[in-house]
Amino acid sequence: MSEIKILYESPEWSNLHLGQLLEARGAEVELIDLRAASLSLGDEPPSGLYVNRVFPSAVMRGAASSISLAWKWILWLESKGRRVINPSQASRYDYDKATTYIKLSQLGVLVPQTIVCGSIESLREGVEILGFPLILKQNLGGRAYQTKIFQSPIQWEEELTKGIAFGADHLLLLQRYINPLGDYTLRAEVVGGELICLLKRYVAKGGISSWSRGSQYEVVSHPEEEVVSLSLRVAQETGMEMGGLDFIRDREGQLYLLDLNATSNFTPEYLTFLGFDPVERMATYIIQEVKGEG
């Protein structure tokens, strides 16, 4: 069996667990830590299948450079004919929300009204256009990193007084706030063209729906066909072989797509409330792809 190489920057549970599951199935696994690695463009990459597991949340850990390096690694590997899961197309959307919204709009998918800002002046102009309430978020970053909801001009001016830090890519996004039906968003997890689970993620601290903010999760036993078909179509159109999609349904019933996460992260708690191991599903898909390569 071909060797499997995992690009990573965080030794979190799902990354180490994935490596262990692959080794248990007879694969040779090498973890390449992009916090310390370099890239010699003139070299020929070793054979094998490569898996990108560098999270956008690296910016929270002071490891934003590993995201840029991962992107270069993937492009380099593909230029040399190496198989990468997820490919550059999907990884690009994982690391750039604005590009994601452009692609989704092109696909006819509803997304929140969004203004991309690179200066305080453009933020002020964007606020005038959107009005309140609105959301401020990083263009690059996971786990709702520094995402905030502003309900009024007073709150916004207070934030400006404290000072607003632009993201790792020097961009911020302003979005029209969507009031979620049922006070939850949806996370759909897709592996190999199959929806493996759909979760309700309830609004938590600061009005944000995120595991990192303490959201409560609930398994959706019978997903709506609209969510299933849209998840699979978008995953296919964006090249996302393994990853998550974040949805929100507004009070009028319209379904919006908020985010693509080509590097879904899991903790051991998922095994308990899901009743299965999603990382094992990822390992199964990777092994199938390795055999296909052979």
Describe the structure in your own words:
- The structure is a single chain.
- The chain is of the alpha+beta class and 294 residues long.
- It folds into three domains: 4-86 and 282-293, 3-Layer(aba) Sandwich (Rossmann fold), CATH 3.40.50.20; 102-110 and 179-262, ATP-grasp fold, B domain (D-amino Acid Aminotransferase, Chain A, domain 1); 114-176, Dna Ligase, domain 1.
- The protein contains nine helices and 13 strands.
- The strands form three sheets. The protein has a five-stranded antiparallel sheet. Strands 2-1-3-4 form a four-stranded parallel sheet, with helices on both faces.
- The longest helix is centred in the N-terminal third of the chain and has 16 residues, at 64-79.
